Amino acid sequence: MDLAFSPAEEDYRQRLRAWIAANSYHAAAIAKASDPIQAARDWQRRLWKAGYVGLTWPKTYGGQEAKLTEQVIVAEEIARARLPALINAVGLSILGPTLVLHATDEQRRRFLPKILAADEIWCQGFSEPGAGSDLAALRTRAVLDGDSFVVTGQKIWTSLGNIADWCFLLVRTDPDAPKREGISYLLCDMKSPGITVRPVRNAGGGVHFCEMFFDEVRIPRVNLVGPLHGGWKIARSTLDHERSGLSGVIALENGVERLWRLAHANREPGYLDRSLRQQAAWYWIELEGLRYLGFRALSDQLAGRQPGPSASVGKLFASRLRQKVAKSMLESAGPLACLTKKSPHVLARGRLVAGYFDALGYSIGGGTSEIMRNVIAEKVLGLPRSSGGDE
């Protein structure tokens, strides 16, 4: 495991910081734009044209063919500068790497450049009512009819479902096969007739998720990724990409720093509760553990190995740390946590309560904490396979 970046990589980091300093005002303008979705697309396209999106993807499909370490540096610096997440994050971090590994050349040429330029925004259609933790129990069916699949069923907890142009989804194509063997991986145009999208408001008041209904939606067979009935292996690859990465560590680092600033802002100068100091120090220690786990996963990827169970370890502990930090921020603010942003005494723009509820969702999104524990138990500790859920 290599814990240091080379001098050339540090030079790359400095050039990137200079570019961010000169261009970050475009990202800051997204929130105030008359069309924030289009402004977010424009920001991602600007980053891509500058060579900071799709770093490890092949140049043939619009990527940079840069080293994985440079991709990590870009993710770190974007998080450190507190720039907004790229609007096509699902396509960039989850679907794109999957297509590079498993799609046909025609599919790669068709979809990858438009993912990079944010011309087409993607969402993920995996979870279903009754098939979230136990993903292989999904019931959305696809019947092959000529050159098309006819898809009927429901998906839920779909991020970006209300603005996505395309969706990659798992469907059951062989209802008689063992549950992990009768699944296929399809790419669906969200403008297809028969699709209904309903936003789901979360406990924090935001609308980050949607439920989607497919009523005999026709998807061309050319949009099948990998072999028919062979979607489970591809889904596993997708989930590994979803759970790995060092950028989340930087986002957590920003959260611990916000807690530290909030703790000082809410008290007399020079005074800070001892228990809060100990909490913050312990969170930072956990953060460093996650950072080195991320370096370990990075070293595996540089050596050509999949992240494997280390991604599940990182996902489980990062979710818990995010929730602990959010809870400490609430406790530190006390009654002031309930103030809205219109109050002159508001803290953290009135987002503390919503931030706490948002943090709870990290135990579910991208694979529940129970599934992460199952993966760790089976693949790290060598315990027998659970009779419940799938990874």
Automatic annotation (TrEMBL):
<dbReference type="GO" id="GO:0016627">
    <property type="term" value="F:oxidoreductase activity, acting on the CH-CH group of donors"/>
</dbReference>
<feature type="domain" description="Acyl-CoA dehydrogenase/oxidase N-terminal">
    <location>
        <begin position="7"/>
        <end position="117"/>
    </location>
</feature>
<protein>
    <recommendedName>
        <fullName>Acyl-CoA dehydrogenase</fullName>
    </recommendedName>
</protein>
<dbReference type="InterPro" id="IPR046373">
    <property type="entry name" value="Acyl-CoA_Oxase/DH_mid-dom_sf"/>
</dbReference>
<dbReference type="InterPro" id="IPR052161">
    <property type="entry name" value="Mycobact_Acyl-CoA_DH"/>
</dbReference>
<dbReference type="InterPro" id="IPR037069">
    <property type="entry name" value="AcylCoA_DH/ox_N_sf"/>
</dbReference>
<dbReference type="Pfam" id="PF02771">
    <property type="entry name" value="Acyl-CoA_dh_N"/>
</dbReference>
<dbReference type="InterPro" id="IPR009100">
    <property type="entry name" value="AcylCoA_DH/oxidase_NM_dom_sf"/>
</dbReference>
<dbReference type="GO" id="GO:0050660">
    <property type="term" value="F:flavin adenine dinucleotide binding"/>
</dbReference>
<keyword id="KW-0560">Oxidoreductase</keyword>
<dbReference type="Pfam" id="PF02770">
    <property type="entry name" value="Acyl-CoA_dh_M"/>
</dbReference>
<keyword id="KW-0285">Flavoprotein</keyword>
<dbReference type="InterPro" id="IPR036250">
    <property type="entry name" value="AcylCo_DH-like_C"/>
</dbReference>
<dbReference type="InterPro" id="IPR006091">
    <property type="entry name" value="Acyl-CoA_Oxase/DH_mid-dom"/>
</dbReference>
<feature type="domain" description="Acyl-CoA dehydrogenase/oxidase C-terminal">
    <location>
        <begin position="230"/>
        <end position="380"/>
    </location>
</feature>
<keyword id="KW-0274">FAD</keyword>
<dbReference type="InterPro" id="IPR013786">
    <property type="entry name" value="AcylCoA_DH/ox_N"/>
</dbReference>
<dbReference type="GO" id="GO:0005886">
    <property type="term" value="C:plasma membrane"/>
</dbReference>
<dbReference type="InterPro" id="IPR009075">
    <property type="entry name" value="AcylCo_DH/oxidase_C"/>
</dbReference>
<comment type="similarity">
    <text>Belongs to the acyl-CoA dehydrogenase family.</text>
</comment>
<dbReference type="Pfam" id="PF00441">
    <property type="entry name" value="Acyl-CoA_dh_1"/>
</dbReference>
<feature type="domain" description="Acyl-CoA oxidase/dehydrogenase middle">
    <location>
        <begin position="123"/>
        <end position="217"/>
    </location>
</feature>
